[in-house]
Amino acid sequence: MMDNDISSRWHRFLGSRREWLRSIGGAALGVSVSGWFDALAAKAATDKRRKRSCILLWMSGGPSQTDTFDLKAGHANGGPFKPIQTPVPGLEICEHMPRLAKMGDHLTLIRSMSTKEGDHSRATYLLRTGYTPGGPVAYPALGALVGKSLGEETAELPNCVSIGAMTFLSPAAFGPGFLGPRHAPLVVGGGRAVFQQAQGNNYEQQLKVPNLTLAKDVERAQADARLSLLSDMEQGFGESHPGHAPQSHVSAYRQADRLMRSSATAAFELGGEPDYLRDAYGRNTFGQGCMLARRLIERGVPFVEVSFNGLPESNVFGWDTHQNNFDALKKMLPVLDAAWATLLEDLKNRGLLDSTMVVWMGEFGRTPKINSNQGRDHFPTAWSTVLAGGGITGGQVVGRSSEDGMTVADRPVSVPDLLGTMVLSLGLDPMEQNMSNVGRPIRLIDPNAKPLRECLV
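The structure assignment produced for this chain is given below.
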């Protein structure tokens, strides 16, 4: 489906949706699709005072830069994929992402990422926290930091939502660290649901938030009485056991209760979206997860991440393509292309792209040299990430890898440099401090970071 066709159909849908909402008046269904929210969201989207937000597209396993955003056509390391032109002269990406290529003027490609961590667990922790694992400090993931800085404590929806997170490789890389459980993300479709993809693409079930309603035989009055009793017990316990843990427990229960009572949970009901838009995103976990991310951002959630962990029919682990790299990517890249391009177009149509930064990255890249199994192995030396949207100057390439892709030839970018750029684009002060679990204040970003000023609006 062409981008302009999506745009025109989206506007036609808005008109028909308004007519339908007027026809059902104050019925319960009208509440669930939040007719009142359309006007509120439209106003908020164009409000210059609107806070910026972030959507992180996390590629579990480490995607190949040589087959996506830094192709080496004509070189032995290049492989069979061909580059295609975007609207920006000289900015080319893989032929298997034609829809995203049309959005090239919104993209900033960073082709000179360079780290020293080639292990999945350690690299995942580094990319998501800005620090290598080890030592006494439990660093928080970027989502927790952004959620704490940009979110509201009394917000009905969580300030950080993680969709489809494959956490087992590096659990601490997805958590709140020293910020505590109150800043932990709401995980949707993670854990066991990730592995269920191997048995089928049951995305509708995977993207549901469990336990949002009371148990079948429990009335609201009963639930309120139980919560009141729990509150009295927690107060007594907290008075005799002061500390972080009891407070976090109380906070978690209050947040859960607030979410269960809120009409904002309609954000997780994807059935209200038009079929053509759901088709455009892709009827799969990642595509529908990206659409859910837009719905959450639309409702004021500051940070949402969507993990792409592979496809049900794929015989590789996520983007960890040690073998049959090209066969796997021929299936995965069209899924990525549809979801990512539609997300950018959808945000743009709703006036949200200027206030929403979209980031694409994994824990490292893959070797330019193709191995004997037609795969590519772990490669942290020279690889790519992509930024787009709010706070980012699109239509450019930062850094350059060598002709064979084996080294950074120009403008090496470290993880703190990247995260510092992201924090600045969100309007945050990288020097802002939080108290750590060891009683030492820690800045949002490593003070030695050198943000990419040329990327920032």
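Interim note for the steering committee: Residues 13-49, 195-200 have pLDDT under 50 and may be disordered. Residues 149 and 428 are 8 Å apart (CA to CA).
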